[in-house]
Amino acid sequence: MAVLKSQVVEDDFRGSIYSSLRLPLNLFVVVVHGLDREGDEHRNRVFVVLAALLIVASVLAQLVLHDAKIRLLQLASPVAVFFSPSPRPPARPLASPVADFLAPGPVCLNPAPFPTLPPASHPLTMALAAETKRVVEQFDFSDSDVDVHVKEFLRQMDEGLEKDGTSLSQIPTYVTGVPNGTEKGLYMAVDLGGTNFRVCAIQLNGDTTFNLTYSKVAIPAELMVAKTAAELFAFLAQQIGVFLKEHHAERFASNVQQSSTPEGARHENIFRLGFTFSFPVKQLAINKGLLIRWTKGFDIPDAVGKDVCALLQTEIDKLGLPVKVAALVNDTVGTLMARSYASTGKHRSIMGAIFGTGTNGAYIEKTANIKKPIEGEYDTSTGEMVVNTEWGSFDNQLNVLPTTPWDKALDLETPNPGFQMFEKRISGMFLGELVRLAIVDMMKNEEISLFRDINSSFNDWMTTTSIPKESGLLKTGGLDSAILSVAAADNSPELSTLRQSLENNLGVYNPALEDAQAFKAVAAAVVRRAARMSAVAIGAIALRSGLLNDPEEEVLDIGVDGSLVEHYPFFREMIYEALPVVEGIGAAGAKKIRIGIAKDGSGVGAALIALVAQQQEGK
Fold first, then answer.
1. Is 339 a catalytic residue?
2. What is the pLDDT of residues 150-190, one digit of tens each?
3. Strand, coil or helix: what is 326?
4. Residue 602 among the catalytic residues
5. Is 293 tagged catalytic?
6. Which part of the chain is the Hexokinase C-terminal domain (predicted)?
């Protein structure tokens, strides 16, 4: 039947060409007769007119060919993964954003008229569409999956509060209260949370506002796997010194001068510093914590089991800097503190979360529920303590976590296989690699045409697709997760921005529209799964708070930070979309949950905890 339809289209196609050319040919005959009558004096003018008519005829024929190409491909392709995107994204995502990529519609659109007969590569195009659909479906995370994972998350939360050595570490932070926005003072903060190191000075104004100055430097790759801890922490201390000299030169010089006297620097002139250290630690006090393990590409065995605050303080003292490491802060705890300080109204933030290079969360827990011993002193008057979940390691045993072949391959590439299994499915550090692994597997399939010359006939101006050996697409870790945001944001008919990004950032020369569509579909599926898994953690903690059914609590405020939740289009909306399906939350409970960005959470939050530590020193 498809062959008969195709034949009809081809007959119409030939008829259209004949019709488009018949008029200019008839005019040509008239013009020639005119030449015989008028003589040579009008010959040049007539030739100009004739040339114009032939150009018009050629353009008409090209347009007819282009329309015929689209109709032929629509008849030939039973799997409509490839589509013409809408010119603008929806205000909120549909029930299944990935389904957009699988919706019926015109296929293989081309911006320029097709210069020859439609290509004979339809079977390969259909194979690419079918393979893309197969890969996309493996990243599906259904409503029932969300609910099952929430139940398992709650179980592992309880387990972590009872004993050490569990998947969810549930680490007491010794922070027993959150700010209310009236705090004042000048404090420092440093943030070691991934591939960058940030140094900040924060002036708290006491009215929920603050002024922040900061500098940021990349961590040299060799220091992420240094032989000794001292190498890394000496580098961090040097950056603190550079920052003080640049931004607080007078106070720095005064304190250095005082430090050289027998009395030393005055206590009140020493900068109190909050150290945001976004790796698993066993916290023993507000300013003391032993490193449990490295994540996010760091691997320095010499530091494991040591007090990271003491390691930094030792290197600071070697440089004679007037700085005291007053508080050890996980970035999620800092996010919670910053959100609480900046929030207005009576709504208290119950949770801080990071969805960026890594992922983690901290929440307020009743101290009575923390069954395992809490070493060291802390303020017991509030009856609460902020707990650092370390949820990146949720379900390391893979009781419920979905595992595709590419999840397995990615895990084996990392320095810590078998650990941080939740994080490896959610965080920005790994999402790009997941997409890359899936795309490379598709490229190895001889039956499809992804990023191959066979698709060049669909490209503009008959150019050829090619990938050099040095392309990031062919290297482990070579696909930056930032391109996933580009793919999600590009809704142009020809995906021109994404195709340009594939060429500029990955070295894919002249990718075809079909290549970009397949890439966009796989990327969207990977990120949508990440967003819905993020909803698992948020939903579980919202349930544990016990406030969803409290009529006096109109809003459950959650502070979030990180590149994914800030910059990936509709990431928060995809989280919201998954919350109502959780048993115990439902539509009414989901409306109570408010997810807001906590700006400069790791810096401002760390400064606030340094302030808390200073207050405890005076007690």
1. no
2. 999 999 999 999 999 999 999 999 998 888 889 999 999 99
3. strand
4. no
5. yes
6. 351-612
